[in-house]
């Protein structure tokens, strides 16, 4: 089994299956978000926990963090309404569960949970991060996530265009949400195109002087850089033929339908910066501040170091995905140096 520990427990208050998967602690305590969503059965939740905890190991290792990969899934059934009381009961159960692990797993927010839920866990255990600002946490991670994407973008620009200067370049941002809007504010000098399935964002785009692109046209609109900042699974064998961009870098998780798409993008001479590298700014910053107790400057410097990580990945042979995976793997399993005796 490639996982260090996988525990499934049913909470005594909420009676919801809670799955904590610890993929690896080779580099430090396992960190990973708490996913609270409905599943056909708890075994489907288990699959998610296994897949996502492994992805966290690689995300942390690629970011050179002293943490391993873990994940929690709280597998709701399809029917029970998620009332505030029920939510509280589930989180109290989980808080006790995490406390019983003695620090081998540290929880953060993920799909279905946020900083306020982490504050509930903190009543039971110190092993939760990304707390609201009013209880001493760093609050939303969107700012450092956007900062990390901009760092990755600079490295990508240098690789593709020979300069990180965005003047006269066209940047197309898909998803004008909390991260996408901050990226748009940060791409100084560029012509900015934005797109969102939420049509009410059109006004926000107009007010800021961004040009609007219909979501159906995103994959066929020519631009210098495409920034996926909405949902995953956007690049697959049937969609990438239409792309008219030389560089893709953005925060959206799991952008490729599967890893083999990285080869197809490379064959089309499109530079794709792996999402788990580009999107790591939030986790780097919040862990740094709340768990490692770094000051703002030191944690921000770590986020900015995404630029040199991407430089390194883009200089390595093979696709950027293969290079990022191999960088992470080297850190997780450093090759033991052979010693010879005289
Ligand atoms: N917030 C973070 O710190 C963080 C960290 C790592 C990764 N991410 C990932 O980055 C992405 C953006 O995160 P966010 O916090 O800004 O989310 P968000 O929910 O604030 O914004 C997402 C935006 O995308 C839009 N959208 C949804 N589907 C779309 C589609 N098919 N085409 C165009 N627009 C679409 C939504 O209307 C929304 O405006 C997500 O994939 C998220 O998982 C976020």
Automatic annotation (TrEMBL):
Protein name per its UniProtKB record: Glu/Leu/Phe/Val dehydrogenase
Q: Where is the signal peptide?
A: none
Xref: Gene3D superfamilies: Leucine Dehydrogenase, chain A, domain 1, NAD(P)-binding Rossmann-like Domain
Which SMART domains does the entry mention? ELFV_dehydrog (SM00839)
| Species, as recorded | Amycolatopsis acidicola
Return the InterPro entries for the record. Answer: Aminoacid_DH-like_N_sf, Glu/Leu/Phe/Val/Trp_DH, Glu/Leu/Phe/Val/Trp_DH_C, Glu/Leu/Phe/Val/Trp_DH_dimer, Glu/Phe/Leu/Val/Trp_DH_bac/arc, NAD(P)-bd_dom_sf
Residue stretches making up the Glutamate/phenylalanine/leucine/valine/L-tryptophan dehydrogenase C-terminal domain: 137-340
Q: Which residues form the active site?
A: 71 (proton donor/acceptor)
| Gene Ontology terms: biological process | amino acid metabolic process
**GO molecular function terms listed in the Swiss-Prot or TrEMBL record:** nucleotide binding; oxidoreductase activity, acting on the CH-NH2 group of donors, NAD or NADP as acceptor
> Mind telling me which residue stretches traverse the membrane in this protein?
none
Similarity section: Belongs to the Glu/Leu/Phe/Val dehydrogenases family.
Q: Name the positions where NAD(+) binds.
A: 175-180
Please provide the record's keywords in A-Z order.
NAD, Nucleotide-binding, Oxidoreductase
Pfam families noted in UniProt: ELFV_dehydrog, ELFV_dehydrog_N
């Amino acid at each position: 089994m490639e996982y260090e520990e996988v525990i499934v427990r049913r909470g005594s208050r909420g009676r919801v299956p809670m799955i904590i998967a610890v993929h690896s602690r080779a580099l430090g305590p396992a960190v990973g978000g708490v996913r609270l969503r409905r599943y056909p059965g708890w075994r489907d939740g288990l699959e998610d926990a296994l897949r996502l905890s492994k992805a966290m190991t690689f995300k942390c290792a690629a970011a050179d963090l002293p943490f391993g990969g873990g994940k929690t899934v709280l597998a709701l059934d399809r029917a029970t309404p998620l009332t505030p009381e029920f939510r509280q009961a589930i989180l109290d159960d989980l808080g006790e569960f995490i406390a019983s692990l003695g620090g081998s797993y540290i929880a953060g927010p993920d799909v279905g949970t946020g900083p306020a839920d982490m504050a509930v866990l903190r009543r039971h255990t110190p092993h939760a991060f990304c707390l609201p600002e009013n209880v001493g946490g760093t609050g939303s991670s969107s700012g450092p996530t956007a900062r990390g994407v901009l760092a990755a973008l600079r490295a990508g620009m240098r690789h593709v265009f020979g300069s990180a200067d965005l003047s006269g370049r066209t940047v197309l941002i898909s998803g004008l949400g909390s991260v996408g809007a901050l990226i748009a504010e940060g791409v100084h000098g560029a012509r900015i195109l934005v797109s969102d399935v939420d049509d009410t964002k059109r006004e926000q785009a107009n007010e800021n002087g961004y040009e609007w692109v219909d979501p159906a046209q995103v994959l066929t609109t020519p631009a210098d850089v495409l920034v996926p900042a909405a949902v995953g699974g956007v690049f697959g064998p049937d969609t990438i033929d239409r792309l008219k961009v030389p560089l893709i870098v953005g925060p959206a998780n799991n952008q490729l339908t599967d890893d083999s798409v990285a080869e197809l993008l490379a064959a089309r001479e499109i530079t794709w910066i792996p999402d788990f590298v580009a999107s790591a700014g939030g986790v780097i910053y919040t862990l740094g501040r709340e768990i490692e107790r770094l000051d703002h400057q030191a944690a921000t410097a770590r986020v900015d170091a995404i630029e040199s990580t991407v430089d390194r990945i883009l200089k390595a042979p093979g696709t950027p995905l293969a290079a990022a995976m191999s960088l992470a793997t080297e850190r997780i399993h450093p090759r033991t140096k052979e010693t010879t005796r005289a």
